[in-house]
Amino acid sequence: MKFQGSDQYVATADLMLAVNAAATLQRPLLIKGEPGTGKTMLAKEVASALGRPLLQWHIKSTTKAQQGLYEYDAVSRLRDSQLAGIEGSERVRNIENYIVKGVLWQAFEADEPVVLLIDEIDKADIEFPNDLLREIDRMEFYVYETRQLIKARHRPLVFITSNNEKELPDAFLRRCFFHYIKFPDAETMQKIVNVHFPTLKKDLLSAALKNFYDVRNLPGLKKKPSTSELIDWLKLLLAEDVPVDALQSKDEKVSIPPLVGALLKNEQDLTLFEKLVFMQRNNR
Ligand SMILES: Nc1ncnc2c1ncn2[C@@H]1O[C@H](COP(=O)(O)OP(=O)(O)OP(=O)(O)O)[C@@H](O)[C@H]1O
Ligand SMILES: [Mg+2]
Questions:
Q1: Which residues of the chain have pLDDT under 50?
Q2: pLDDT score recorded for residue 4
């Protein structure tokens, strides 16, 4: 079992190495990187490349570790007990009927090894990663209500993504293999664009990429545009049939690209960029 990228997803050699290392170690792969550099998509692509089902758990600020294991639905049980006739009371008596399985439980009881994505773990509170240590390590947990021990039938391949909004605890880090997705260089970026727009004309692509890196390399930007923003922008350029000339200035100087709203997402960055263009024009 080796992951080698897919025709939808461009994986660099070090990323493939990391995926395979995590699989060998049987530890979760912790992936960090700027927003839009393909962290979430990686888990999906690995699942489809290996032909395994994908289970996703999207973490929010209110998510608790317990929700990934199971939840006991006491409210339904109470309501049923009030409404139940004789057959109904049978159901109410059995607490198992009110245990709702979480994503981890589903992954543990699956018939085949699955890929489990725990997406954006840094959105949860500080305790969240610590609360999952045992489950991630031993791949088991205890259901107190029914006195059952749930053990994974097959160890899932776990992907955990983070945008670095919070530090992760050391004890948690110890259990993971770590990979940082670096922002793609121009060559990799060209491959990524090719995956999305196989018929894009070469001159339009190189002009667009130059514009994109000009914007991205501007020092002091609050929010740098990322891969997914480049893809959106190219989609717009194609939809609006923007000619190559509109992306190139005759004098090789930086200019404000059309539909710049796809790349720059706040007014400070836009002002900064306009200033740069203005200064370059005046230096001529
Ligand atoms: N290596 C890649 N190959 C192909 N497409 C890519 C690649 N990296 C990014 N993309 C494009 O960027 C989009 C965003 O990727 P994704 O949602 O996985 O980013 P992310 O890192 O999870 O971002 P966030 O941190 O905001 O959740 C993808 O839908 C895809 O179109
Ligand atoms: Mg994501």
A1: none
A2: 87
Q: How does pLDDT run across 215-230, given as a tens digit for each residue?
A: 999 999 999 999 999 9
Ion ligand 2 nearby residues (CB, 5 A): 40
Ligand 1 atom with least separation from CA of 120: 27
pLDDT in tens, 173-211: 999 999 999 999 999 999 999 999 999 999 999 999 999
Q: Which long-range contacts (CB under 8 A, 24 or more apart) does 18-24 make?
A: 18/177, 18/178, 18/179, 19/46, 19/179, 21/177, 22/157, 22/158, 22/176, 22/177, 23/157
Q: Which residues pair with 55 in a beta bridge?
A: 116
Instruction: Give the model's pLDDT for residue 263.
Output: 95
Write out the H or E segment, with its range, that includes residue 47: helix 39-50
**Nearest atom within ligand 1 for CA of residue 226:** 12
| Paired strand residues for 29 | 159, 177
Q: Give the chain's count of helices (H) and strands (E).
A: 13, 9
- The C-alpha atoms of residue 108 and residue 143 are separated, in whole angstroms, by 13
Q: What spatial distance separates the first Cα and last Cα of the chain, rounded to whole Å?
A: 58
Q: What share of the chain is helix, strand, coil (3-state, %, to 5)?
A: 50, 15, 35
Rounded to whole angstroms, the Cα distance separating 176 from 184 reads 24
Reduced to 3 states (helix: H, G, I; strand: E, B; else coil), residue 25 is helix
- pTM greater than 0.90: yes
Does any ligand 1 atom lie closer than 6 A to the CB of residue 225?
no
The predicted pLDDT at position 284 comes to: 61
**Could you tell me which residues come within 8 angstroms of residue 120 by beta carbon, excluding any fewer than 6 positions away?**
58, 59, 161, 162, 163
